[in-house]
Every structure is written in C-alpha cells, then in structure tokens.
Amino acid sequence: MRYGILGPLQVFDENGISAVIRPRMGVLLAVLLVRADEVVSREELIDEIWDGDPPRRATATLHVHVSQLRKFLSSLGKVRDPIRTQASGYVLHPGAGELDLHLFQHLVRRGRTEARAHQHEKAVTSLEAALGMCRGPALRGMNGGPIIRGFARRVDDVRTECVETLVGSSMALGRYQEVTGLLGSLLCEYPLHEGFYQHLMLAMSKSGRRAEALAVYHRARETIREQTGLEPCRALRELQRAILLAEDEMVAVHAAGR
C-alpha cells in the first residue's frame, strides 16, 4: 500500500490502483499521515475533522470514523490494523517507502548536502526528483483544520527553497536556459517571489539576454507595486543597476573600438 499527500490525497492498494475515500475519513487519514509515527490526540482530530465546529457527539462519531478507516485500509493492504489506539489518541505507522513525504524529505536533505558540497550534478538530480514528486499543493482540495493547513504551508516553503537550491546548482553548471524556463513557470505561481525574479534576471544576463533581464525587472516592479504598494527589494534593484552598468560598459567598449 502507498500513500500520497504531496498533492491531492491518494491511497493505492497492492496492485497500484487508487482507492476512493470519503471526505471526513480522508481528513482523518491525512492528519494521521502528516503526523505519521506520532500520536494524534482525539481533541486534535475532532478539531481537524470539523474545523473547530464539532457535533454534540463528536468523540463517538470520531470512533466510528476510525473504525471505518481501519476496515478501509485493511481491505487494501496486508496490514490487519495499521492504526493503533493509544491512551490519548491514535497513531499510524506507514511501512518503509509507503508515504511519499518521507522520500521527498530524504531527497531534499540529500540535495541540500550535495549543493553545499558543490556536487552540483548530484544536487540537480536529487532536487529534480524531489520536485517531481509534488503533484501540486500538498493535500490540495482538502477541507481540514490547522494541522492540514500548516502542513500545506510548510511543504510549500520547502518546495520553494528546493527550487532556489536547484536553480543555484543549475546555474553553477551553466544551465541558464533550463533555469529560465523553470523560473518563468514558477513566477506564474508565485508572482511576488522576489528571489525568483532575481534568479531569472541573473540567468538571462549571464546568457547574453540583458534586454530581457531588464524587462523582467520592470514586470517585477509593476507586479509588486500593484499588489503590495511597495518597491522591489534592494537586491533586485541593485541587480538591475548592475545589468545597466554592464550594458553601458559594453557600449563604451564598442564605441572605443570604432
């Protein structure tokens, strides 16, 4: 059996067939997977399933949901009872390689280590594999409470950090064209991420596309001012000036050679 939470919730049986799970049971399973190998209290689960507005008999209803989820999971895999009852709540222990989050975290850690060691080829391989596991926002489309919302934000933060590390290693290898394509698509998703604008401008400038790099700055400035009322950060402004100065120096060199 395999579980996927790096995107819409997925549960696959031993034959690789995705199973359909009911909404509240899905929230219950998602929380147990987010906190895999940790006990989740009944109070936390009730708050998550009903998002702070539980019914009168919430504890009894929770027990019913847990029982139904146990039967559902047992019907898909070899484990008879994957959810264990503890004094304060419940815990789910996924088997090795069953939860996509665990492999994602391993790849991200390995990619960071390789990038710091300047092993950029290996870092690119690891980080691309990690990003390839993300099927969209974590637990997309799930109406949960604070645990699920907090998890989705954390995965998004790790994903953006992963992209920045990947971009750094790719640029160290001189792969500017690949970087510009990746960053262009990411800026559609994160239009206020100034670091992505900065990397895109730098990649374009290094590949001789200075006019396009300056156009990216103007697009960034317009977007940031329109949506926040602020000016771009200092690093972005300084990069724009550096590109302009480089152009001026090139013009002076060509003029002197005539």
What is this structure, in a nutshell?
The chain is mainly alpha-helical and 258 residues long. Helix content is 64%, strand content 6%.
Write the layout of secondary structure elements.
Elements: E1 2-4, E2 10-12, H1 23-34, E3 40-41, H2 42-50, H3 58-76, E4 83-85, E5 89-92, H4 100-116, H5 120-132, H6 146-172, H7 176-189, H8 194-206, H9 210-228, H10 234-256
Antiparallel strand pairs: 1-2, 3-5, 4-5
Helix pairs in contact: 1-2, 1-3, 4-5, 4-6, 5-6, 6-8, 7-8, 8-9, 8-10, 9-10
Derived structural class: mainly alpha
Spatial order of the strands forming the largest sheet? 3-5-4
CATH class of the domain at 2-92: Mainly Alpha
- Residue runs with pLDDT of under 50 for 5 or more positions: 250-258
Could you give the count of β-strands?
5
CATH homologous superfamily of the domain at 2-92?
Winged helix-like DNA-binding domain superfamily/Winged helix DNA-binding domain
Q: Can you tell me the CATH topology of the domain at 2-92?
A: Arc Repressor Mutant, subunit A
Radius of gyration: 24 Å
Topology as H/E string?
EEHEHHEEHHHHHHH
- Counted by DSSP, the helix tally is 10
Largest β sheet strand count, sense and barrel closure: 3 strands, antiparallel
Q: How far is the first residue's CA from the last residue's CA?
A: 71 Å
Measured as a percent range, the helix fraction is 55-70%
Average the pLDDT over all residues and give the rounded result: 90
